[in-house]
Amino acid sequence: MTTKKKMKSKKEKGPQADVSLSAILSADAEPTLEKMGVYLLMSDINSDTVRPVIEWILKNNFIRSPIDNLTLIINSGGGSVTDAFALIDVMKGSAIPVHTIGLGEISSAALMIFMAGQAGERMMTPNASVLSHQYSWGRYGKEHELVSSTRGIDLTSEMILTHYKKCTGMTEKKIREVLLPPQDIWLNSKEAKKHGLCDKVKEMY
Question: Helix 81-93 to helix 47-62 angle, to the nearest 10 degrees?
Answer without folding.
Answer: 10
